[in-house]
């Protein structure tokens, strides 16, 4: 069950990163279909790393917020 959930999560992250890259390229006037597949895949991999980094920052911020709430009692 855990492996299936992890696999589904990775698929969704990949879809999200791909959509983000396509949108960013379109905003710059670049047709993603004209890129080599290896270049496009590299961009998607970089976007996935950015998403992972951002999610870690958000998680840390939430954790700090909860900790401060518990300490201050607010």
Layout of SSEs?
Blueprint: H1 2-27, H2 37-72
Helix pairs in contact: 1-2
Characterization of this structure:
By secondary structure, the chain is mainly alpha-helical. It is built from two helices and no strands. It has helices spanning 2-27, 37-72. The N and C termini lie far apart (38 Å). The model has no long low-confidence stretch (mean pLDDT 89).
Main sheet attributes: strand count, strand direction, barrel closure? none
Helix content: over 70%
State the end-to-end distance.
38 Å
Number of helices: 2
Shape: elongated
**CA gyration radius, whole angstroms:** 17 Å
What percentage of the residues does DSSP assign to strands (E)?
under 5%
List low-pLDDT spans.
none
**What is the succession of H and E elements?**
HH
| Mean pLDDT metric | 89
Structural class: mainly alpha
- Number of E-type strands: 0
Q: Could you give a short description of this structure?
A:
With about 70 residues, the chain is mostly helical.
Please supply descriptive tags for the structure shown above:
2 helices; mainly alpha; elongated; 74 residues
């Amino acid at each position: 069950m855990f492996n299936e959930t992890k696999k589904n999560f990775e698929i969704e992250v990949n879809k999200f990163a791909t959509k983000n890259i396509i949108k960013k390229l379109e905003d710059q006037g670049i047709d993603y279909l004209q890129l080599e597949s290896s270049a496009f895949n590299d961009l998607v991999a970089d976007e996935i790393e950015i998403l992972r980094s951002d999610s870690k920052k958000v998680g840390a911020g939430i954790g700090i917020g909860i900790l401060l709430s518990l300490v201050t009692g607010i």
